[in-house]
Write a structure and sequence with these properties.
Layout (H helix, E strand, L loop, with lengths): L1 E5 L14 E6 L3 H12 L4 E4 L11 E4 L2 E4 L4 E2 L4 H9 L4 E3 L6 E5 L2 E5 L8 H20 L10 H5 L3 H5 L5 H15 L8 H11 L2 H5 L8 E3 L4 H11 L4 E2 L4 E6 L4 E5 L3 E10 L9 E3 L3 H8 L18
Parallel strand pairs: 2-3, 2-14, 3-11, 12-15
Antiparallel strand pairs: 1-14, 4-5, 6-10, 7-10, 8-9, 12-13, 13-14
Helix pairs in contact: 1-9, 3-6, 3-7
The chain binds flavin-adenine dinucleotide.
Flavin-adenine dinucleotide (FAD) binds next to helix 1.
């Protein structure tokens, strides 16, 4: 998540002194690097400050049998036009995700094997799930572009996705929707605000566009790995403009400039972009503190997901 601070210069800087940049960007994940890359293209000076010793954040290279794999984010789809444009701009290319053959789903301890997108389920459950997904899409499409301005915002934000799912008839249909939510959000339906859920669906176009493969968010992978996007952006931003192993401790704002402090140094800028998961911003000391946002960030847990990669001789 990104938000900007317009912060003022403080002349009692100590420790490592750096030239003042137009924008200091916290986090060298895809969001922070994209911000830095676009600002640099627009002729602004930037400094990216990253806690880890590498760029990429939740995209990361893994190795298996001497080949590179994505340990983090990997799929892109045709409706995600901005990342598709960036892939081309960085001279990368995509290849289709193999999805022929059978799919497996485990529900209530029972494994079922099916072809296509929808598992073989009792007709009533399928109808109920179909009706629920259509309703979710209608609600998402009717949401205001700025969801907090929607007249139903408060009501939708005070319930979770799970609360809404409880109203879906048939146990199997409810479980199907929960499985899809787990796969899409890496979290439980009970952890997600229904307003946030609908806004996410709205951004993607529909529930199906998030969950499916062909024509949807899992259609393509990046040749050589999605982790290359961050590395290529970093090359174009310039390594001198990226400070690794520098966890940010505090951001101080006082008028027209900003002071960002890490354990080992300080960075000054006219603006600051914080490109971290909401929950991680709670470890930074803000002055003045954006109290309402921090209170939201404390209540937005990170998703939890384990990814395992298994290599077979041939697709099956
Ligand atoms: C296993 C997995 C699979 C995924 N699959 C897909 C997929 O197929 N398709 C898809 O679209 N998305 C996928 N995602 C999601 C996608 O990877 C993320 O949404 C995206 O990478 C997030 O980018 P970001 O820049 O917003 O945040 P991050 O990548 O989290 O970047 C934030 C950066 O900030 C740094 N940081 C944190 N605290 C501080 C601090 N105090 N000071 C300085 N730096 C700090 C972090 O080290 C990190 O580098 C997947 C995610 C995971 C984990």
């Amino acid at each position: 998540m990104i938000y900007a601070y317009n912060l003022m210069f403080q002349n009692w800087l100590q420790g490592e002194k750096m030239e003042e940049k137009d924008v200091i960007i916290i986090g060298a994940g895809l969001a922070g690097l994209t911000a830095a890359y676009e600002l640099k293209k627009a002729g602004r000076s930037v400094q990216v400050v990253e806690a880890r010793d590498r760029v990429g954040g939740r995209t990361m290279e893994g190795k298996l049998l001497d080949r590179s794999f994505d340990l983090g984010g990997q799929w892109v789809g045709p409706t995600q036009t901005r990342i598709m444009t960036m892939i081309k701009e960085l001279d990368l290319s995509t290849f289709p995700q193999h999805s022929d053959g059978y799919q497996l789903v485990e529900m209530h301890g029972k494994l079922s094997k099916y072809k296509g997108v929808i598992p073989k389920l009792p007709i009533l459950a399928l109808l109920s799930a179909d009706r629920a997904i259509k309703k979710i899409n209608r609600l998402a499409q009717s949401l205001a572009q700025e969801p907090w301005n929607d007249k139903r915002a408060e009501a939708l934000d005070t319930i979770t996705a799970e609360h809404w799912i409880q109203g879906v008839p048939t146990k199997i249909a409810r479980e199907m929707i929960r499985i899809a939510i787990r796969a899409i959000f890496s979290g439980e339906s009970s952890e997600i605000s229904f307003l946030y859920f609908l806004n996410y669906i709205q951004g993607a176009g529909s529930f199906e566009l998030l969950a499916d493969v062909e024509g949807a968010a899992q259609q393509d992978r990046i040749l050589g790995g999605a982790f290359q996007i961050a590395r290529k952006m970093a090359d174009r931003i310039g390594t001198e403009n990226i400070s690794l192993s520098s966890p940010v401790r505090s951001i101080e704002q006082s008028g027209s400039e900003v002071l960002v402090r890490t354990h080992g140094g300080e960075f000054r800028g006219k603006f600051c972009i914080v490109a971290l998961s909401p929950n991680l911003t709670t470890s930074i000391h803000f002055s003045p503190a954006p109290l309402e946002r921090l209170s939201l960030a404390r209540r937005m847990p990170m998703g939890s997901v384990t990814k395992a990669i298994v290599a077979y001789d041939a697709p099956f």
